[in-house]
Amino acid sequence: MIRLEHVSKTFSGQNEVHAVRDVSLHIAPGEIFGIIGFSGAGKSTLVRCINLLERPTQGKVFVDGLELTALGEKALRQERKKMGMIFQQFNLLMQRNCLDNICFPMEIAGVSRGRARKQAMELLELVDLPDKAGAYPAQLSGGQKQRVAIARSLASDPKVLLCDEATSALDPQSTRAILRLIQKINRETGITVVVITHEMTVVEEICHKVAILDHGEMVETGRVEDIFSNPQTDAGRRLVYPDGVALEQLPTGRVVRVAFNGNSSYEPLVASLAMDCGVKVNILGADTRSIDGKAFGTMLLGLPQDGTEAARALAYLKGQANVTVEEVRDYHG
What we know:
By secondary structure, this protein is α/β, with parallel strands linked by helices. The protein has helices at 43-50, 73-80, 98-108, 113-126, 142-153, 172-189, 200-206, 224-229, 234-240, 267-277, 307-318, and strands at 2-11, 17-27, 32-36, 58-63, 66-67, 83-87, 160-164, 192-197, 209-214, 217-223, 254-261, 282-291, 294-303, 323-328.
């Protein structure tokens, strides 16, 4: 559905800024794809390159098989109707009620008033706000405003929904509700969703695949569970394990991080290590997360000071099925 080929974006001026550097990625139809990175990583610039609100300095952008970067402005405006977009600050028209906000893009497209209002009511039903048709944005909570913004973004029946930090201004409960709504829309309509965020919890909650940006470069991409289980880059590790590991505070010389798929209990692994190898380890930390409806877990284990025992424990752990083992050395987050 979306293909970027060697896309770069440079902002010229007194100090030239390379916001996006040589990014290539493929997003399949019906996928929920996350693009994550810290502030200044180039996420928002990249998503604006997808719908060409920012025209790339270099590279090509294809959406639904059509090269957008080869189109003139008139044709591009038509193609943008196939891409809805929601923002952190909702961008609703304060002088219009919810129904009229949703009708607005249809009015611009020349849809008759009766048809636009009928479709807007259907969209309010979809986002569970049928009773707020006559309410104004000032009367709504943050989560309700974002629901109206999502309904408005769907008014043109787009094939792609771009979400630029869509939950960053919301409280945790509203965030979860909006993410569930996006999942529902994706499941029921088959729309392709691109989620821009700096929060790994958002990616874990709903995304199928993820790309990690760092200083404008795509440094890592893959299935969310693979990135979570075994991040390959420093940027990936900082996002997956934001608290890091303060080694000087741990009562051991060697620490390993164990990540595994589908288990919510760590006891069998640690117990079997003791029984099968005769090696006892310290559990220094543990966490479980739900990724795409499946349980994933991580543990920090302190290995014995004895080098032979530590090597035996490490070999045993690496031999377990569906387990990824990484020795943690100098990473402090």
